[in-house]
Automatic annotation (TrEMBL):
Belongs to the AB hydrolase superfamily. Lipase family. GO terms for biological process: lipid catabolic process. Residues 70-307 form the Lipase domain. It comes from Helicoverpa armigera. It is found in: Secreted. Residues 1-20 form the signal peptide. SUPFAM superfamilies: alpha/beta-Hydrolases. InterPro entries: AB_hydrolase_fold, Lipase, Lipase_N, TAG_lipase. It comes from the Eukaryota. One of its GO terms (molecular function) is lipase activity. Pfam families: Lipase (PF00151). This is Neutral lipase. The lineage of its organism: Eukaryota, Metazoa, Ecdysozoa, Arthropoda, Hexapoda. GO terms for cellular component: extracellular space. Keywords: Secreted, Signal.
Amino acid sequence: MVKMATLLLVAAVLAVTASAVPLTPEFSEQRVYPRFIKFPDGEGVLHDVDLEAQPQQDILDEISRNPKINQYLLFTRHNPKSAQSLLFDNEESIKSSNFNPNVPTIVLAHGYFSSQSTPPNPRLRDTFLEKSDVNVIVLDWSQVAISDYVTAVWGVPGVGRALGQFLAFLNSVTGAPFGQMHLIGLSLGAHVVGNAGRELGGKVARVTGLDPAGPLWNLNSNRISPNDAIYVEAIHTDGGYLVGGLGIGTDVADADFYLNGGVDQPGCQTHVCSHMRSYRLFDASVKYNHIIGKECSSSLQITLNTCRGPELPLGNDDLTKFGSGQYRANTRRKNPY
């Protein structure tokens, strides 16, 4: 009797813990969100969202016919705080700027209801420039991002295609190689940079998705995917399946890192905190390259923190990095984590 009771207790514990973390990719693809949710902007302010709203067609038509709707702001060590505007189809704007085709190019894409000046852009810009001589291009797609959430989601492919076309133009003008480009996006921005990489035939060195947005993306063919770059990485920090996570919570990349299980983060009491922790962890990884994941053979191993496979560092700025599979990495509550 004692043995049977023990077995029943173990089974109950496994069932509870398994429901609180990313489930198998096949199962979590079927996630159904309630119609009305709240989704944060880059500052962490929550906005009411109706996932069944009709998108604003005029905005979608504009991004389809006018790829110049995006803004591209260049920062280098010669102008680390004051942006230079790079204009699509304007060679002089590029040739007269501080853009250096001989160093890596980092592209940063914000998320929903955000702009060039909202997180993660300033922090990641400063970190990359302090560490090495690079071009940092901040994509401002706020004309689409500040619309309602459904319109922003529908607009992501067009925004991403426009970014890809701009990078192709940049390559044609300067010779800057795609193999020296790293595209990084937060939340909806993760899907933007995925689409940009896809527009370029997966030729860029890296695409990194920082807790790619979940609502309206689980069965969406336009989401970030392993084919978007030579190496695609996703950092999952708020992907709870049954607890309303803001992140997608399923495999979308070559290497998918589930931080502390991928559902919530140490020291965070809200989904917003866990969702935004993704860019802070990535920022720390660029500085110190100290967050190490261990490969997992199943989602249950991610849940129970029993991953024992090969190690792979999370994030960082290595343009030749490569890996595949699911990984769990554990961090502390405060920076540098």
